[in-house]
Write a structure and sequence with these properties.
Strand content: under 5%
Radius of gyration: 19 Å
Number of strands: 0
Distance between the termini: 38 Å
Length: 171
């Protein structure tokens, strides 16, 4: 059932209800099952050097827990945003306030994720974008894109605003 979701129209709906959940659930599956924690670990920082195919138990657990964080982000985008749409179909102001709270948290997480992913790269890779692998581009380039779209949503680009950017009502 498609409900009225004016606070998340068109491109925003496609990105945040479909593309982002897939892009965050996929790394969880990659880390947990195939190719697995070792592959995921070694993809975090691009290298041409041969790497060990085994990880110690602590590192494996940390990668699986990171996968769980990705999974949680995908569930929030997918399930919570749909619940907002379905529970408040005729209340775009409430939709926007709840989405805005979620987008604020996600934008802060985006900014810190970009920063720690970039700072964690070896100096010789930081500005060698062509040497970045898919994982690095996902962690930095794609997250910059997501953050930019969240900021555009707050600015009202390409949508009608119902709460953000409106003057508070004075009784």
């Amino acid at each position: 059932m498609v409900s009225n979701f004016p606070a998340l129209p068109g491109f925003y709906r496609t990105l945040f209800l479909y593309i982002e959940p897939v892009s965050t659930v996929s790394p969880a599956i990659l880390a947990w099952f195939f190719p697995g924690a070792s592959w995921f670990h070694h993809e975090l920082i691009p290298t041409v050097a041969a790497v060990s195919s085994t990880l110690d138990a602590r590192t494996t657990m940390a990668i699986w827990q990171l996968g769980n964080c990705y999974f949680l982000l995908g569930l929030i985008s997918s399930l919570v945003f749909r619940a907002i749409r379905d529970a408040l179909p005729n209340n775009p102001e409430a939709q926007e306030r709840i989405l805005g709270a979620s987008f604020t948290a996600l934008a802060l997480a985006d900014a810190t994720h970009i920063a720690v992913s970039f700072v964690g790269l070896p100096d010789e890779l930081k500005y060698s974008y062509g040497n970045w692998n898919t994982m690095t581009h996902g962690n930095i380039t794609f997250v910059i894109f997501l953050l930019s779209v969240r900021l555009a949503w707050f600015a009202g680009v390409g949508r009608t605003t119902y709460y953000y950017g409106k003057r508070a009502k004075v009784d």
